[in-house]
Amino acid sequence: MDDLFPNSPHVEMVVFIEMNMFCTVIFRGVYMIKSIIELLSGLKENGIKDIEKYLCIKHGPTIGDMYEGLTKELINKAIFDNLELEVCSGFIKNSKGDYSRQIDCMIVVGEGEKIPETSKKVYSIDKVIAVIEVKKDLFSDDLASAYNNLLSVKSLSEPTRDMKIDMLEMAYKQIVGNALPNPEQIIELSEELQYTYHALVLEAYLPLRIAFGYDGFKSEESLRKSFVNHIDNMKGKKGGGIVSFPNLIISGEFSLIKTNGMPFALATDSNAWISYGSYNGNPLTLLIELIWTRLYYMYDEISYEIFGEEDKVEGINPFLIARGNANGWIYNVLNAKLAKGDDIWKPNEVTDIEYGIVHLLCNGKDISVFDQGFNDYCEENNTTVNKICKNLNEARITTVENGNLKLLTTNCVCAIYNGKFYVGEDSNGQMTRWLGRVQKI
């Protein structure tokens, strides 16, 4: 199976553009328990110190084994004991009998098949939650090597594993700004949106694919430049579609993250899909959030409470826009000023008219964009229905379906504080906690 359709396996074009669009970080499942990140950071630091004592051995396979062992220890600490999960190395196969390359570290369900006289195992792809390619250093050559190893997993893709539709629904809402279409509606989408839709479906089925380099580029800019060079080299080659990109690339202290709405997304004031971002915070944060979000959607017994109540917004910098068509994938590189650090979640500040509209929708009222009274009221207040719809859709609060405004949120809350109007998602209590914080100031 190719990324989307048989005739679209490659990179068609890479273009550099200046980033001048509105962009908001939107995500689900990022309220991390601070203690787990601190624990893993300490284990990682101590593990590296222990390994460094033996780097004098100068034996590549042994050095690789040490870093793989450390990675397995970190991942074992990050998953849950009661889910029959295992962390191991080995190979992945599909129902056709095709095998992946050797996998350094993978999170799997159940026992698997033990390879005789080794500690490695074989698992069918429907039992694999995540695969991690481990590197002591991750520079340009290492990036290409890790990419190809992870690509061998993607090439086994079979949409046969269980998938909770709500993960796909949430991703599509965040990326596109509309509700997930029914199968019969897909043909009505634009070509670009059809490719985006099919890409997100595959993203929801495939295991997480992660490249983990303990050392690497010394700046976020250098990592971004190296990856651009890599995808530029993929022009016309199989494996250049957006689904082939790893979900996460860690190079020392800097990371690249796929913003596919599972959980991270970057919403813009256009229909463009910002499919990749870069990050200069603790890379273990992204690693755990990816894994925990996938487990949350897979297992009913996992409560959202595992993510805690920190309400931290990861400072993900927009990097690549992806556009699919029958000829391949076009990537626009966003040359934006790179922000440093994370922020605290806050709701969307809206106008009084926008607030009133969302409040009515929250109370079950129907609002047609063609209603003459609605249009007249907007004109009297120096705005338009189109402007209101655009603003609320950029914030991923509402969309328009069949001429009616519809909420995109799961549990929207409206609030007036200090003379200003706010609306925000409260499905995980973030809006409630925000109100508690500001009222104490």
UniProtKB/TrEMBL annotation:
Residues 57-156 form the DUF6602 domain. InterPro entries: DUF6602. This is DUF6602 domain-containing protein. It comes from Kineothrix sedimenti.
